[in-house]
Write a structure and sequence with these properties.
The chain has about 100 residues and is an alpha/beta fold. The chain has helices at about 30-40, 60-65, 70-75, 80-85, and strands at about 20-25, 50, 75-80. Strands 1-2-3 form a three-stranded parallel beta sheet.
Length: about 100
């Protein structure tokens, strides 16, 4: 895949290894999750965590929108709370809307 650095695509969640974890909290559309997966893989990221996705998981609309980012989709983890999603991480940065 163009733009994908497969050497960086790991799933450790350890910031010292340059493998950040992406966490989507209450994502609403499968399409948005899929597009996020595609962007992650294009940038060498593969550790996706979802907190209470509105439309459930797995989601076929996410797969269709991911355009081949199956590595990220297949390894995505689902959590009930944000606290559970970040429990094993040592450093957390956050951004949000609303």
């Amino acid at each position: 895949m163009a733009g994908t650095n497969s050497k960086l695509a790991g799933s450790t969640g350890d910031i010292t290894n340059n493998n950040p974890v992406i966490i989507l909290v209450r994502p609403q559309l499968g399409e948005n999750i899929g597009m996020c997966c595609r962007a992650m893989l294009n940038n060498g990221l593969s550790d996706l965590r979802l907190v209470s996705p509105r439309d459930g998981w797995p989601n076929e609309k996410a797969r269709a929108s991911a355009s081949g980012a199956d590595l990220v989709l297949d390894n995505a983890q689902v959590f009930d709370t944000t606290e559970q999603a970040v429990a094993d991480l040592k450093l957390v940065y956050a951004t949000g809307i609303g």
